[in-house]
Structures are given as structure tokens and as C-alpha cells.
Amino acid sequence: MTVSKIARVAVVGVGWWACRLHLVALRENPDAVVVALCDRDRNRVDEAARIFDVPLAVTDVGAVIDAGVDCAIVATPHDAHWEPAAALLDAGIDVLVEKPMTLDPGQAWDLVARARRTGARLHVGYPFLHSPHVARLRQVLHAGELGVPVLSQGLFATGIHRLLAGDVSSQLEHGGLFASAPSTYSDPLRGGGQMNNQMTHAVAVLLSATGLHAVSVSAYSNFAGLRVDLADSLAIEMSDGSVATIATTGSVQSHSSRIEEYRFFASEGHACLDTVHGSLEIARGGQPLTAEPTLTEAQANPEKATSIALVAAAIDPDRACTLAAPGEIGADVVALLAAASESAVAGKPVQAFRPPRSA
Question: Backbone phi, then psi, for 344, in 5-degree steps?
Fold first, then answer.
């Protein structure tokens, strides 16, 4: 594939998130031009193309491939990520798949394999992994500066209870062009629930920061009268023998009161990360916690960074840039969450799926 200096970008799935975030970010990016939009809803894709001044509006991903794009964003509903992403990767096109990458671990690892075969770059929509604090944490933990990992903890408490109940009106209240289908959040068969919609962020941060993956998971879920999980608690055996715990709830009453906190304990120190307040503190040996520079909200949760990274990788002539949120992380997150969902039903630990090459 010949990569142009200005990336020719397509967006597949032009619902609430794509129109609220990705198309806005791409319009602001001088290194990108959106040349095609794709959605199964003819009226919606035509309207989005008109509003964002995109020349091609189609309902078939094959037409996107024929348009000669350099990279694409897949922002369809959770249960519809695999098919368009697979077709784009097979065509050698770089892809950013929104989180969760898929609902099925086999499909997630299949996308990783397709990207490896064609050389396409596979990104996953985890903005926190682009934060300077998470990058710093990766550097410290991967280098062993705090010693051997012992315990990792995460708490991700947010206010999406209305969405989980099937009420998507808040998306329009906050300036969305289109609202998601209520089933996106409230139907367990379509990837609804707190695990797939919110805990997925916390899992990605823990796996990225530590460089580890889950071996087995024990989970409990509280549905609180909904069809999907509202709160979840996980205990995880990690690939190096350390342990992790992650808890999440969608019951926080306001966005400003949300909690996104992480603790990483190792044999020679520990670190505390707060992505709401933009803080990272690191303690080495017997020394007190030392604070890294505080980040703004936009730096701690750089939502637009996912599409910026997609474009930057697509126009990199050496194809050598390191991805902050690669497909392998996305697949490990899917595997962990699938094991957690199964464990919560079965009442026993469940192994997280990983193909032999990635084990």
C-alpha cells in the first residue's frame, strides 16, 4: 500500500461516539482528511457526510476499501466490530477499533493475527493509554524500577447507570448528533453492561502499565435489577504470579464525582495513579511518595489521542512507531473480561484465553 503524506481516513460506524469525538478530532488534524463514511443506516451516514463534509457515504465496507484509504476507525456497536475490522486489515489498511475490541476472545486474537499477516497496524480505542502518566508508569514498571510486581489494583466508578438501563437520552442532551441504540449498553448479547463499557478501560490500564496478562479470573457481578451488570469485582492471577483486583460500578450519580484510581505494589516500591485528578505518585524503597507533574483532564484522558496516533502511524514512512494501545492489549482485555463474565455466572475461576504464540 502506498501511504500518502496526508492520511486518507475512513470512519465505519457513524453513531454517537464517532460524531462526538472521532470526526471532530480528524477535522482538526492537519495530517488527515476523511474521505469516506460507512454505516448500515443510509439516512444516518448521508446526514453525517453532509455535516462533516465527507465526499463518500456508503453502507458497505467494501466500498471503503475501494476508496483507497490509508487507515480507518471502526466505531460500530460492540458486537459488530470484528467483520469490518477483519476486512480492512486483510486489505492492509491500518485500523483503530473502538473498545472493547470484540466480545469474543477468539475474534479479538483473529484480528491480531490478520494485522500481523498483512503488516497493518491495529490500534484499540483506549485513550488513557496515551496519557503521559500511564506512559511514565509503563516505563517505571517495565524497567523493574520498583522491583518485582506483587499486587495491582484498580477502581473505576462512573455514572452510566441510565445507559445501562437503556436510556440513551443523555447522549443527545450533551450535544450528540445521533444517540446509540439503547441495546448497545443494556443488552447482554450486544456487549452491554459495566464490564464491557467501563471496566474495559481499567483493565487496559493495568495490563499496559504492568506488561502482564491474566491467567485466570474470579468475578462477582451485581445486576441491581438490570439486564446487565452494574457493578463487578474481579480477582486476577497474572502471568508472572502476581495478583490483581479490579472493581467497577456505573452507579456514581454525576460525572464530576467519578473515581478512577490505581495502585501498583512491588517488592521495592509502589505507585498511585488517579486519572480523574491527573496525579501520579511513585515511592521507591523506603522513600516517601514523589509526585509527578499534575496533568489536566485533557492530558489525563486524552480522548482525541487515539485517532491522532492512528494517523501518525499511517503516515510514518518507516512504519516503526510504537503503538500505545496495540491490538494485543485489546485482545488480552477481551479475554480477561470474557473470563470474568463466565466466572460470575459459574461461580468459579475461569482461565483467560490466549493463543499459544501469545502465551
Answer: -60, -30
